[in-house]
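Students often ask why inverse folding is considered easier than folding. One informal answer: many sequences map to the same fold, so there is more than one right answer. In these notes we will look at a single instance of the problem. The structure comes first.
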């Protein structure tokens, strides 16, 4: 497990600090450059005179359009507010009539205060409705550009700051998406796929924990596979070892059965138990052998060719054992996906179960059913009464179920009261 050098909160704090430093440096640099340019081009004498002349022309237009007299101070104040960054002074007959810098307490100077030398030198004539006056305009013309540039610089620095932070966060989000995609790969069963471990934060620790879990799970699966291989090998060896003495035992019991004696009843019972034990050994061997076999080779065969002979043989054996058999339905003219060898094993197990557990006094019903996708065979029989029946291990049914699955079919069993139904479903195929 990696040690965390940087947690996500520390990384975010560091990212914000770096973004703030870089953005602040960018803001200061842009401000210095813009201030130098404004000072160079907009604080010159020629620019100031040009802008002053424009303002005087606007004021003349305003005064003429509104027929203002030299004492319409409210109208002058409105024009100053509208123009912004401008100071306006008006003299008439060499006496002050208006000053935009004066407050209400200073208005007593209007009509009294004489024209200053600065006004005499820098004023411009303007015609009012009550005669000609002298107007002075002092403007901070470059200030508006300072404000505009400052706003743009602040906005640019903010965007740059957010871009750095978002790019840093995006890297972590991309890694989070990578972890999410890799988890989906593992969910799909690709357990050999290794998780991407990047960095030392909480996301990296999550990825590393998942990786350790993946390795531990693979180790568990390997241990299970090893145990299964060993158990199959053991069962296979035991089945082989059991068959030799069982075969000899059955042979000796057959010899003993031929000789009449007071112990013939016990010998007959011992013989039937030996046969039963051999059958269980064979079923056990077949069941575990299915695990080791590769996928079976299937072929498309007509139902008549695949099923007819097997059913006929079963019916013959059942009637020989004094069972009554009734057929319902007919074999359809369709094709099914099967393996003939394994299909024979299925019917052998079905027949063995019927011979062991079916009540001979009641008929066995074999029903053929078909739908657009599946062909079904149902075998129904009555179960022997408990005291006369042999105890079932269910191993034969598990063998049937596994073989049917290998042939892409299904096997189900149903017990309704004393009646037992074995249903085999075969998937139809094209020719």
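Output (designed amino acids):
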């Amino acid at each position: 497990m990696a040690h965390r050098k940087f947690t996500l909160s520390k990384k975010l704090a560091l990212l914000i600090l770096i973004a703030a430093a870089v953005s602040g440096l960018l803001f200061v640099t842009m401000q210095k450059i813009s201030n130098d340019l404004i000072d160079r081009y907009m604080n010159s004498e020629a620019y100031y005179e040009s802008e002053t002349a424009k303002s005087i022309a606007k004021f003349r237009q305003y005064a003429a359009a509104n027929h203002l007299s030299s004492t319409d101070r409210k109208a002058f104040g409105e024009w100053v507010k509208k123009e912004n960054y401008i100071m306006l002074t008006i003299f008439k007959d060499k006496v002050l009539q208006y000053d935009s810098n004066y407050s209400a307490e200073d208005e007593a100077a209007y009509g009294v205060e004489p024209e200053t030398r600065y006004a005499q030198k820098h004023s411009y004539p303007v015609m009012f409705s009550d005669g000609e006056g002298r107007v002075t305009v002092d403007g901070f013309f470059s200030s508006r550009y300072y404000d505009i540039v400052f706003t743009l610089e602040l906005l640019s620095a903010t965007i740059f700051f957010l871009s750095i932070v978002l790019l840093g966060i995006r890297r972590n989000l991309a890694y989070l998406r990578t972890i999410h995609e890799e988890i989906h790969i593992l969910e799909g069963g690709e357990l050999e796929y290794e998780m991407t471990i990047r960095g030392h934060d909480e996301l990296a620790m999550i990825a590393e924990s998942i990786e350790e879990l993946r390795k531990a799970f693979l180790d568990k699966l390997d241990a299970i596979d090893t145990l299964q291989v060993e158990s199959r090998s053991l069962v296979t060896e035991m089945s082989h070892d059991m068959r030799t003495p069982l075969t000899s035992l059955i042979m000796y019991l057959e010899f003993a059965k031929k000789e009449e004696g007071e112990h013939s009843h016990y010998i007959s019972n011992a013989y039937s138990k030996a046969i039963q034990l051999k059958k269980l050994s064979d079923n056990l061997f077949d069941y575990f052998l299915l695990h080791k076999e590769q996928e079976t080779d299937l072929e498309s065969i007509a139902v008549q060719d695949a099923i007819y002979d097997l059913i006929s043989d079963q019916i013959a054996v059942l009637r020989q054992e004094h069972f009554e058999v009734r057929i319902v339905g007919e074999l359809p003219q369709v094709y099914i996906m099967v393996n003939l060898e394994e299909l024979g094993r299925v019917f052998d197990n079905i027949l063995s179960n019927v011979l062991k557990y079916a009540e001979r006094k009641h008929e066995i019903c074999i029903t053929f059913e078909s739908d657009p996708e599946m062909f079904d065979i149902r075998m129904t029989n009555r179960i022997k009464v408990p005291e006369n029946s042999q105890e079932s291990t269910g191993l034969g049914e598990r063998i049937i179920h596994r073989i049917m699955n290998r042939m892409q079919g299904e096997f189900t069993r149903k017990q309704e009261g004393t009646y037992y139904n074995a249903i085999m479903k075969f998937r139809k195929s094209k020719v």
